[in-house]
Design a protein that fits this description.
Elements lengths: L1 H7 L13 H14 L6 H18 L13 H15 L3 H24 L2 H24 L5 H14 L12 H11 L6 H17 L2
Helix pairs in contact: 1-3, 2-3, 3-5, 4-5, 4-6, 5-6, 5-7, 6-7, 7-9, 8-9
Length: 207
């Protein structure tokens, strides 16, 4: 799917749609990508994440423009993944969604620093609009898999403690409780390691 996005860009339209629609075609592709999350394979999840990134990068020239009712192209790609975390019905699917969220957040942050001037401004706006819904979903729904914890760690390292403590929100208590939960006896070693790493980053940034 990523290769198709690279080749066809805004012309990636299913001719069966009347009229052909880039947005509807991508929406169906997204649904197919999500079906692979159940594979419980980081290799498969990585392929899914790369495909989503390539679709975002190649098929939407204006990243901040609304898409099918979503606030922007970034939200069109990102929000369905976030919804899988709030649904909480399939732990493996949630892990796949979290893996893709981490990959995309790192991509957005990298583009924020290295892209062209115009794209940098768009990416700064995108990151600022995404990190609070991500923090809220993580703490409210107790999403404590290693990718999700790693995403929060990356946001703090790159943007500072302000993503955790703002004038409107304070996620500190929720994150500490989440990390303690993730270090319990039933947690797997990678999950525990991610929790300890996040606690360490929180401590360093609160000095």
């Amino acid at each position: 799917f990523g290769f198709l996005a690279q080749q066809f860009k805004t012309e990636m339209q299913d001719p069966l749609d009347k009229p052909p629609s880039l947005q509807k075609t991508i929406q169906r592709i997204q649904e197919t990508i999500y079906s692979f999350f159940k594979a419980n394979s980081r290799l498969v999840w990585r392929g899914c994440a790369i495909s989503l990134q390539e679709i975002f990068e190649n098929c939407f020239p204006v990243k901040s423009a609304p898409v099918l009712g979503y606030q922007s192209a970034a939200h069109f790609i990102f929000d369905p993944l976030l919804s899988m975390l709030t649904a909480g019905t399939n732990p493996v699917q949630m892990q796949g969604a979290s893996f893709c969220i981490k990959y995309l957040i790192e991509y957005f942050l990298d583009q924020r620093e290295s892209a062209s001037a115009d794209l940098q401004l768009e990416m700064i706006d995108i990151v600022e609009k995404l990190h609070q819904p991500l923090l809220q979903s993580t703490t409210k729904y107790q999403v404590d898999n290693e990718s999700q914890l790693g995403t929060i760690q990356t946001l703090i390292e790159r943007l500072g403690i302000r993503v955790v403590v703002t004038e409107q929100y304070n996620h500190m208590d929720g994150l500490v409780k989440l990390c303690l939960k993730a270090t319990g006896q039933l947690s797997k070693p990678p999950q525990k390691r991610a929790a300890y790493d996040l606690i360490a980053v929180l401590g360093e940034n609160l000095k």
